[in-house]
Amino acid sequence: MKILRVIINSVLISLIFCYFLAFLIQELNFFLPLNFFCLTQITLFLTLSYGALVFFITLIIFFLIQFFRGQRIQPAWISPSFLMLGLSLSLLLFTIIFKSNMHFFRAFYNEENLSRINHQQLILIILSLIGFWCFYLFQRSKRNIVFVLLYLFLFIISNVLLFHQKPLVKPLKTKGAGYFEIKPSERIVTLIGLEGLSFDFLIPLADEEKLPNFSWLFEEGSWGQLSSFTPNDTFILNKSLITGKLPANHFYLSRFKYYLPNLNWPLQVVPRFIFFRQLTRIGLLSPSPQPITSSGNDLWEIIRLNRGKTLQRDWPYDYKIFLPEEALKSFHRFFPELQTENNFLISILKEAFLTDFAFEQKFFKEKLAQSPQLSSLLLYGLNNVEAYYYKFHFPEYFGEISQEDINKYQSVIEKYYQFYDQIIGKYLASLKDNELLIVYSPHGIEPLSLWKRVIEWLLGNADISADHDLAPDGVVFFIGKEVARGQNINRISITDLTPTILYFLGLPVARDMDGIVRSSIFTRDFTDENPIFYISTYETIR
Fold this sequence. Notes:
With 542 residues, the chain is α/β, with parallel strands linked by helices. Helices cover 50% and strands 11% of the residues. The chain has 18 helices and 13 strands. A seven-stranded mixed beta sheet has the order 5-6-1-7-10-2-11, sandwiched between helices. The protein has a two-stranded antiparallel ribbon with strand order 3-4. Strands 8-9 form a two-stranded antiparallel sheet. α18 (524-529) links the parallel β12 and β13 (534-535). α1 (2-28) packs across α2 (36-69), α3 runs antiparallel to α4 and α12 (344-370) packs antiparallel against α13 (381-393). The chain is globular and about 85 Å long. The termini are far apart.
């Protein structure tokens, strides 16, 4: 009967822990109409995975405590001591998970909601400490029921306060961008996104004179670090770039929807640091990509409504459909020593290269044919290559890597940068007097920490050695006739690009954008002749 009592108390602790995890999921998806019934559904769903895990951990801790005490513990069917201590420990663990997730997703919340979340964190910490305090007093007072009732009362009050401090949703009434009766600007902007560019590679390679076109950007343009945010998802970063807003204000929070078996509403945001997305491996979570649509009032829509042509190619095609004949020849020209190789790493490199090559070729032809006022290309290949080949370029950061593999693959990233340097050369050669060319990466790259390497190994991804999960700074270059030469502008936010582009094109900048106009990248003559015009918002038509 003793083991049955331990099981009952452990089940109660695991259920309450799952309830708090469900509360976290609601916090991350605060913009969805999730009610108490939904919270109960999510709680029951989580018991299949996290509930079972907490249950077994609770059993193990109970028997460890009994072992080290050297005497048998006989808990009641509903044991106040067991529950207060167990709940306090699990709540302390949840507080750490909650705080980590709120910090990771802080870009999803405005200042008012961040303040409310800080209040919630304080409530959770206090409730955890109260639990330990009541447990101690309960033991010291020879199990005085008053302390159990006090803890129960404070537990209920704390939950009421937690829900009272939930983030608020302010409805966004979007009717499209405004139209302005202004003289169309003859200036044009070209955005070249090369995901994964990092000064850790660019500066040394440029100093060694291996990247002549990037060296030209350093010398003849303005450049700096491009800062972003977490979660460092390319889809979300791109939405912030073209709206000039953080996710808290543009509400594009995920590339995917996540369906739970017993919940009608799909989730857009799922917790981090608890392997939640790994539930897809056992069929408990079903991701579904969301359609790639315009943000309604983004940079592209503003240009179109003001009679400007646009060309947007920031999501890759299937390169096999239109693969140019010279693509494979170019690959062999850059990587002649790998022509006879055929393994997983080579397949990653080859697919990245061929996709980038074909995608850029098609974009360049379209740009020449259409002469758009605003055009954008985003290539993803380097980011994928760096994820797998980083360890060969910096073997000193990692464990045992065979010298043969180092010799074979150490130059792969360097040559990929040279491939991108060749691409940049095409756009520099065709740069017009009235054109602003922006070369950027929304994030950088950094080596995986030891614990992440262990996790990737456990998940079967042992080849991955680098990522951008914690938002390392990317890079940005501006070059054109009106751009200041050789200027390091230090750090610029990804949300600053749209206001700066609108300013260059002679269009008003919305005051509700999170980014600002970085006028310092332009020459003094240009800024003197072109003041910044503002409107309140592009969200509604007055």
